[in-house]
Amino acid sequence: MAVAAEAISSGQSAQYRRDRQKTFALLAPCVAFLLVLFVIPIGYVLLLSVTDPTVSLAQFERVFTTPIYLRVLWHTFFVAFVVTVLTLVLGYPLAYVTACRDDAWSKILLSLVALSFWTGLMVRTYSWMIILGKSGPVIGLIKAFGVAEPPQLLFTSFSSALGMTHIMLPYMVLALYSVMKKFEPNYLRAAESLGATPFTAFRAIFVPLSLPGVVNGSVLVFTICLGFYITPILLGGPRDIMLSQLIDQQVSEMLNWGFAAALSIVLLAATAVVLGIYNRLVGLDRLWG
Amino acid sequence: MNQPYLSIRNVAKFYGSVRAVEEVSLDIEKGEFVSFLGPSGSGKTTTLTMIAGFEQPSRGQILLNGKDLTVLHPWQRNIGMVFQNYALFPHMSVARNIGFPLRMRKVSRAEIDRRVSAVLALVGLGALAERHPRELSGGQQQRVAMARGLVFDPDVLLLDEPLGALDKNLREQMQVELKRIHHDSGTTMVYVTHDQTEAMTMSDRIAVFSQGRLEQIGVPLDIYHRPKTKFVGEFVGDSNFFTGRRREGDTLAVDGLGPIKVPAEKPANAGDAATYDVMVRPERIRLVDAGNAAGLNVVDLQVSTIVNYGDSLLVLGACNQLPVRLRIAGEFPAGLAEGATVKAGWSPQDTHLIARG
Amino acid sequence: MQRIFLALAVIVAIFLTLPLLIIVPMSFSTVKTFQFPPPGYGLQFYRNFFSDPTWLEPTANSVVIAVIMAVLTMALVVPASFAYVRQRFLGRGLINLLIMAPLIVPSVVSALGYYGAFGLVRLNGTVLGVALAHTALAIPVAFLVMTATLKGFDRNLERAAMISGATPLRTFFHVTMPVLAPGIATAALFAFLASFNEAVVALFIAGRNASTLPKKMFESIRLETDPVISVVSTILVAILVCFMLGSLLRRGNPRNAS
Predict the structure, then answer these.
(1) Which residue from B311, C230, B94, C107 is spatially nearest to A264, judged by alpha carbons?
(2) Whether B59 and A12 lie within 8 Å, measured CB to CB
(3) Taking the domain B6-232, which CATH number applies?
(4) Which residues from chain C sit within 8 angstroms of residue B74, using beta carbons?
(5) Are C62 and C79 in the same domain?
(6) Contact B73 C164 (CB under 8 A)
(7) pLDDT tens digit string along B250-290?
(8) Which residues from C are below 8 Å from B83, CB to CB?
(9) Are residues A111 and A9 in the same domain?
């Protein structure tokens, strides 16, 4: 009996070894690929930020001590915050209708959100250039109201933020939707049967339960906006630029790689801090859950 | 004596410090329908899994026709299995699902077609061969799963709570069907369930599991009338349990009830100073009055609740604060009411003793 | 109150969709300026697009790159997701973080990194370089889809196959893969789209020889050259709409319910 027991248990440890080899073989290609073709490039940026033009933290010092650049950092956070709030305010009713109703409306609206989501960044940015442009419909409308000298709408912080809001809206809606979809309508019915008005029931029960979606969506939109590249560059103006526009300038106009790298690392750090706080409080896997 | 067909010997399964199965030994004859009965966590499913080969025993052997099963992988064992959620391959038709084990055994196309048709007829699903699982009802999927498990003439068919997902009427219908299929195919079947009615109605023998151990194995009536442990007595059927001490011949002093008469023969493992678990089935107790109480054990019962099932009554009450349950078939007896005190009695032969120890 | 929400939702939905609708008439415009409403309608810019190599070449590049990287991404992600979901091992959190990293790091940072690192190995301006970078960027998305699909997979199907006589290898090919196929297709599609739409990294590393459609669109917008971009946009939106309508119709058909 003891021999049989030993045979079974040594068979089991051989099995563990085979399992571990199998796990390694399955994971290794992907992990190795990412280490070489992602971690190394990022590491390169970090290296650049502290070695160009000399080995020092001078570039970082420059970022944090020059008022212009500090203003850029501040402006970036500010715009990201504004866009987050706007997408939240606009997206909440849309998410509510698509998640909590089960009729033709909810299906149509959800399809429109999906259509918006899958349409590329470039197309949507371009569409705002037409709409807000000098020969576009908005200026045309303003002129029709008799304003002789309409303000410039395009190539401003306003147009940049508007474009970003439009592009980020589906992300917010989808984040809210996935949390709202899990809501039990019976909670509201229970509240109303206990004497609450529909509005009170909504405020006291639905809204608090939708908060995880609000947090998810806000963190998602905020972090994406911090590093938003295409839209601010195409729609934004020369004044009040965002971090990505600054990086673009440093790279394409000034050819100042070390400084651009330092700015990128600052951007990365800011993103990491926000996500780190989120991870502490909620857990990163909820963001794409 | 013939060698048993499927033999489980001293099998144990540990997951770290958790003892899922401890020292289970039982033999199953060819063609038998044996149920593994017990609550969740009792080890019945783990034991079944070890017969299938998805888990290896930590200790012990499993022999089929004298040959050690544990050295074979599941795909080498010629054992069929029906899963609780049927596990029908969604991308294959019914016919291809059922034919799958035969394709794995490189059986010819013509032979596969013949055998699939035959087993479809066996389970009563002839016309549905080209449908896909998602188009079938629960009961139909159940039958397809059985057909797939039987088509290759397995040595044993394992069934893991196959009727759990069906509603009551369908379940009862399928129980009858399953018995018929067992009879028609003659395949040895091991059936895991937590539903004791199911086990009682379908099995040749029942193996009762609790906390990783085999409590008792026997024919249904034996399990019911002569449970060997208190667990079996309580798990199978409704029961009253009391504690008895100081036995003298055919008299036993029972806590709370006083001296009662018991069958004179001892249970096999009892010493003279033993303490006993005393079991009386509720349907063996009836209301008595002075006239018809001769030779019976009689107690005073304070009735607290009466539940009327239509065809029978469940009377819940207490004797000296000890809970007592009766089941009365037929008409509502005169003089029975909630709050009343009545006399209840049962024959000494209906007192079953289990020695504690 | 429900009505207020519905009204608000519809207004927001209009805000979301209207800009896309503006592009369509723009593509039929007869003038080069960004004038809306366009003064006249014609197919001139469509003809321009289909005969202009400076547009057709990046389009072709985008498709080729997206196909290459989709295959490569799936080859890396499918085994990794199997290991991640089904095996127990130390360092899961770290591996998860590594795999998700391309999603977390802002694209301009990655772009800068690729430009610098690829410059050292002469991968800038090559189709291979862009495909490799896009693979890294698409891995998180494909991984998310694959792990979700795998988690929803009923393992009893594999046990049923094995007890029916199928070895683990045959189980994989006869049962596991066919059942996972829709999920794998979805992950591959997401990867394809991630590459096809990717602009920032492409801007930095594609150069002239491996220029992609988004890069060309960006340059076209920046230089305000011509509204051919509205033709491209309209075509892309039209393809998307057809695709969505197609999948809606297929789901409506009960035989294809999945």
Answers:
(1) C107
(2) no
(3) 3.40.50.300
(4) 159, 162-163
(5) yes
(6) no
(7) 888 888 888 888 887 766 666 666 788 899 999 999 888 87
(8) 156, 159-160
(9) no
